[in-house]
Amino acid sequence: MRNAIKVGELIATTDNAAAIGEKPQDVVSASDKITAYFTARVTFLEQLAANALPRHILLANFSGDAAWSRYVAGIQQVFDEVGLISPQIDGSTESNMPTLQSGLSITMLGEQQKRTSTKHEHLSWYTYGLPLVGNEVLAQPEDVAQLKPIFHAWKEGIVQQVWPVGSKGLQTEFTRLFGEEQVKSLLDVKKSAGPCAVVMLGIQPEKEQLAQKIFPRNFEKLRKTAL
After folding, report:
1. Which residues pair with 226 in a beta bridge?
2. Domains defined along the chain, listed by start
3. Measuring CA to CA, how many Å separate 70 from each of 3, 75, 95, 121, 181?
4. What angle do CA 164, 213, 84 make, to 5 degrees?
5. Is 165 in contact with 127 (CB distance < 8 Å)?
6. Strands 20-21 vs 28-29: parallel, antiparallel or unpaired
7. Per DSSP, what are the bridge partners of residue 223?
8. In this predicted model, what pLDDT tens digit does every residue of 109-162 receive, in sequence order?
9. What's this model's pTM, rounded to 2 decimal places?
């Protein structure tokens, strides 16, 4: 599993955001709903990477009482996008001490799904999306890997494995999968992909043509060479 922890029979994934939001001293200015959406999006993709689907969500809100409903709306947007009912959302708000910058953390608890297992080295690997971070994510939303086609292809078994690329960049995630291998890509393999603006997708070789129809934009096959 990528950044997932097994807790009994459940899969726990988590992500957070700080200094992004609606407070005057935030480094990146964005609505609380959008901030929660991208944070929840990462957490949801980590569930898919573990072949799990979320059943309960925990929200830690450091931005004050007023932000809670906006954060919840952003989380629910993820599930609306993929056509699922949002799980129950619980958590707490830091309301005793006012903060100068926004902050939140989202944890999803999910159940692993019964799926056909194929070793990752037997799959064809593609990147979907462009490496974007900070304000680039807000300026180029069409270049961020979209959840709806990812989830559809994963559910239908066209995508066998989901592997999000985050702040450490494509090469780091590729090395986690394949060991001492150098990835060959048209993308900047060392650039941060922020809130998983790039997702690596492992596809059964016989289903590559189907996948190319589902992902017509920013979809590139990866090659590897020894470091």
Report:
1. 181
2. 4-112 (3.30.1330.10), 120-226 (3.90.650.10)
3. 26, 9, 16, 41, 42
4. 55
5. yes
6. parallel
7. 184
8. 999 999 888 888 899 999 999 999 989 999 999 999 999 999 999 999 999 999
9. 0.95
Amino acid at 170: L
At position 111, the amino acid (one-letter code) is: E
Closest CA to 183 of 118, 119, 126, 122: 126
Model pLDDT, residue 25: 98
CA distance 93 to 58: 11
Cβ neighbour number for residue 8 with a 10 Å cutoff: 7
**DSSP structural state of residue 164:** E
227: pLDDT confidence band, cut at 50, 70 and 90? low
Tally of CA atoms within 13 A in the half-sphere of 27 that contains its CB: 7
Q: In the 8-state DSSP scheme, what is residue 207?
A: G
What does the block give as tokens for 65?
């009482």
